[in-house]
């Protein structure tokens, strides 16, 4: 028995195949989900991958938020189903208000593509439990609308509740407030981040490291633990 993890494809999604492979490398079953379908095919968790859904028209993630598949995902996430949003997926999660804040154009107004060092700030979420708090990892980053912003009250709340999941190290590549690279919801089942862990799961591709694999092994172990409880 293994977990079934859905990977959503919107028009303009780029990294769905890479994400499906990362799920399989971790040992779970990857289940493709189409944006027009409300049926989640009995998956145990969902990943919203990176790309430029609907061409980033209006603003990144704004149209995807109204896709039929998102109606079901929002409902299931509020009920505890684990959801990971990567890059454009993170943008979608802020548009749905499953995660607070918003994503704006990078402060330097340029697309950035680089290997990015991160610090894991919490191992208390469904997607980060295979890491240690304070652990430093390196995964690829590629975005133009990656600047995380929120009002001071929200930022203070995220800090106080331990919901900053990842922070940029060495350099802030997009001007995100407080160097925030990723956050979680209060329950810890929903996580969003701008860097791409799915590109760092095998030594032959991406960074040449496997620092991103922990996202997918974390959720697999947590799902199997719940199934066997």
Automatic annotation (TrEMBL):
Keywords: ATP-binding, Cytoplasm, Glutamine amidotransferase, Hydrolase, Ligase, Nucleotide-binding, Purine biosynthesis. It is found in: Cytoplasm. Its EC number is 6.3.5.3, 3.5.1.2. Pfam families: GATase_5. Part of the FGAM synthase complex composed of 1 PurL, 1 PurQ and 2 PurS subunits. NCBIfam families: FGAM_synth_I, PRK03619.1. This is Phosphoribosylformylglycinamidine synthase subunit PurQ. It comes from Streptomyces cavernicola. The lineage of its organism: Bacteria, Bacillati, Actinomycetota, Actinomycetes, Kitasatosporales. The gene is purQ.
């Amino acid at each position: 028995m293994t977990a079934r993890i859905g990977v959503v494809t919107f028009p303009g999604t780029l990294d769905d195949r890479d994400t499906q492979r990362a799920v399989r490398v971790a040992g779970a079953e990857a289940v493709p989900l189409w944006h027009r379908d409300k049926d989640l095919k009995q998956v145990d968790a969902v990943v919203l991958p990176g790309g430029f859904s609907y061409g980033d028209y209006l603003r990144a993630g704004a149209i995807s938020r109204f896709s039929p598949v998102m109606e079901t995902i929002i409902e299931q996430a509020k009920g505890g189903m684990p959801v990971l949003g990567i890059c454009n997926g993170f943008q979608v999660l802020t548009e749905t208000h499953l995660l607070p804040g918003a994503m704006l154009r990078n402060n330097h107004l340029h697309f950035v593509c680089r290997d990015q060092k991160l610090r894991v700030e919490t191992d208390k979420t469904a997607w980060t439990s295979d890491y240690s708090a304070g652990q430093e990892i390196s995964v690829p980053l590629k975005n133009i609308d990656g600047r995380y912003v929120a009002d001071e009250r929200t930022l203070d709340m995220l800090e106080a509740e331990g919901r900053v999941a990842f922070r940029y190290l060495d350099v802030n590549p997009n001007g995100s407030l407080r160097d925030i690279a990723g956050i979680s919801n209060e329950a810890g089942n929903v996580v969003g981040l701008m860097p791409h862990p799915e590109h760092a799961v095998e030594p032959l591709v991406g960074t040449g490291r496997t620092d991103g694999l922990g996202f997918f092994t974390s959720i697999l172990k947590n799902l199997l633990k719940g199934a066997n409880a």
